[in-house]
Design goal:
Elements: H1 2-7, H2 9-29, E1 35-43, E2 49-57, E3 66-72, H3 83-91, E4 95-99, H4 118-127, E5 131-141, H5 143-154, E6 161-165, E7 185-188, H6 196-200, H7 212-218, E8 239-242, H8 255-268, H9 282-307, H10 330-351, H11 365-390, H12 414-442, E9 446-448, E10 451-453, H13 458-485, H14 494-523, H15 532-559, H16 563-580
Parallel strand pairs: 3-4, 3-5, 5-6, 6-7, 7-8
Antiparallel strand pairs: 1-2, 2-4, 9-10
């Protein structure tokens, strides 16, 4: 055993990193054990099951109830996304219900139904005997703001105040606001919020202060002033705007974004343990889950060599055949094309996903868009690859199934391909098992900001099986291009080859985001404002696609073929996407 650990110390260090990160996350979110964090399920009156994390501060009981907060995440996020808010509210003495919206996380689909689940969440929070029903506040980010506002509209006498971040009244069925609805309204809205047009009818986040909609909300006819208290807390007409210099998704990952929500709750409710809004500890929890995420990536890269010492997989180890890809200066032209294709097709291809109706087979709207984008990119790439191979000299210069990684030294057999697939399943299963243990011990997942690796529910696994094949087909073409067409050298180290492939995989999406956000920070608006949602979603692909390039490189160099890496990528990326997206089909 000591020899095994020494030989595969990178794997065991990655495993240790996962659990050290989970321990740090647990210490922060529980206040070293002074706050009880419970993973709960509750049913609404109509039998819909909702998921939440319930934060209960030490000393709170039925005989000594505390104020309560319903905290809700935004679209295509989950209850853990609100952990920064929940941790800070809980350490100030509030009982916090951080719930999954309908159709998100582990709450029953479909998304958008029944006030996004907000009324059910508020009713459940008020039903707890440890919560003071006269001191209940509502806090939501983006669509989570609509969730809590829907709860406020459905139960107008059931809360004391509400604060929304990057959100608005009068959108997606939420009643229009005025000087009296909702009661004691706080608004955190970034100066560079990507959704300023749809939320407050302003082309820029900084400009919402002069819109008629916001002025009506605040009961004034002049420019709304940042940080000024309007109305009266006692009568429920209080309003206050907080405008940090940040974007929409930064609301829940910055101290300035969370400080506004803390300040508003402490102004409008009886806070048991007041702490200055800028005194925050939640970033350490985020650091813990980030460390765990790095450990999980380490496992993806190091579990394979360990597993390949088993008799079942030992025969898979093989060096790649000599490279036969593009070697002259036209490589740079091909590299530019490879990077531009996913960027240029990102918006239009996902727009075409509307041709795929949401169904029991493909039940997630955004995942359908990603699938169309992936398959479309795969088709374009394979056409260009075939053109290069048959017409532009790839075949004449030695290109073959062996040099492209399509087969090994002994060809390609069903048994060999099956063993590669089984190896890929085993690699990803090790990561999944580590996550399950981490969640059991520490009630934490692997995440940083918009990148989150969560356990799948039974429904998620059903959807995973549907989406796995198209995503894996894309990653097979992805690997063929990287290791067949774009591989220039036989002697490149893993670090060098992985670095080049990471740039090829993610450089285009990074350039797209630089263009969009460069415009936002210079002019106040995205270059294409109508694509705000997909722009924010693209943030995860700046990490996911380069990571896929690195994983593909690792297992190509280990096996000499493209299959293990492509299947690992298909498994992992499909899992990451499906578990993190909203489900829109109304499953029975």
């Amino acid at each position: 055993m000591p020899a095994l650990v020494l030989r595969h110390r990178s794997f065991f260090l990655s495993l240790l990193t996962v659990f050290l990160g989970g321990l740090l996350a647990w210490l922060v979110q529980t206040g070293a054990g002074s706050i009880d964090v419970r993973d709960i399920r509750f049913d609404s009156a109509n039998g819909v099951t909702h998921s939440a994390l319930l934060y209960v501060p030490e000393g709170v009981s039925a005989s000594d109830p505390a104020p309560g907060v319903l905290a809700v995440h935004g679209y295509i996020n989950s209850r853990e996304t609100q952990s920064g808010y929940a941790i800070e509210f809980a350490r100030r003495g509030y009982v916090v219900l951080a719930m999954d919206q309908r159709g998100h996380g582990y709450s029953d689909p479909p998304a958008f139904a029944e006030g996004f689940g907000g009324p059910a969440g508020l009713a459940y929070l008020r039903s707890l005997d440890i919560v003071d029903p006269d001191q209940v506040a509502l806090a939501g980010h983006s669509m989570g703001g609509w969730t809590v506002l829907s709860a406020a509209a459905a139960m107008p006498d059931a809360y004391r105040s509400v604060v929304v971040s990057g959100s608005s009244t009068g959108t997606f069925g939420v009643p229009a606001g005025d000087a009296t609805f909702p009661r004691n309204f706080g608004l955190v809205f970034g100066q560079y919020d990507e959704f300023s047009g749809s939320m407050w009818l302003s082309p820029t986040g900084a400009g919402i202060v002069d819109t008629e909609k916001l002025q009506t909300q605040f009961g004034v006819t002049e420019t709304v002033q940042d940080g000024r208290l309007y109305g009266s807390i006692e009568t429920g007409t209080a309003r206050q705007l907080y405008q940090p210099a940040q974007t929409h998704p930064a609301n829940h990952i910055t101290q300035s974004g969370i400080a506004g929500a803390i300040d508003w709750l402490q102004l409008t409710t009886d806070t048991p343990n007041p702490i200055a809004p800028d005194q925050q500890v939640w970033p350490w929890k985020e650091f813990g889950t980030f460390i765990s995420l790095l450990g999980a990536i380490g496992i993806l890269l190091t579990a394979g060599p360990l597993l390949m010492e088993l008799p079942l997989f030992s025969g898979l180890a093989s060096k790649p055949a000599p490279a036969s890809g593009i070697k002259d200066n036209t490589w740079y032209v091909a590299a530019l094309i490879a990077m531009l294709i996913p960027a240029l097709t990102y918006f239009p291809f996902q727009g075409w996903a509307s041709v795929i109706p949401t169904s029991a087979l493909f039940g997630q709207n955004l995942t359908n868009g990603f699938m169309v984008w992936a398959v479309g990119n795969g088709l374009l790439s394979i056409i260009l690859f075939a053109l290069w191979h048959f017409v532009l000299g790839g075949k004449a210069k030695g290109g073959s199934a062996r040099s492209y990684g399509l087969q090994g030294e002994d060809g390609l057999s069903l048994a060999g391909l099956s063993r590669q697939a089984l190896l890929a399943v085993a690699i990803v299963s090790v990561v999944y098992l580590a996550l399950a243990i981490n969640h059991f011990l520490f009630t934490a997942d692997f995440r940083y900001w918009v990148i989150a690796v969560k356990l799948m529910s039974g429904l998620h696994f059903r959807l995973f099986l549907s989406y796995f094949i198209p995503f894996t087909l894309f990653f097979l073409v992805f690997a063929l291009v990287l290791h067949g067409q774009m591989r220039r050298s036989d002697e490149a180290s893993f670090t060098r080859a992985a670095g080049v492939n990471a740039i090829l995989a993610g450089g285009g999406i990074l350039a797209l985001l630089v263009w969009q956000y460069g415009s936002l920070f210079v002019t106040g608006s995205l270059a294409i404002p109508a694509q705000a949602l997909l722009t924010i979603v693209a943030l995860q692909f700046v990490v996911v696609l380069p990571l896929a390039g690195i994983i593909s490189t690792r297992y190509f160099q280990q096996t000499g073929q493209i299959y293990t890496g492509a299947i690992v990528n298909g498994l992992f990326v499909t899992w990451l996407i499906v578990a993190g997206q909203a489900t829109h089909f109304a499953y029975a």
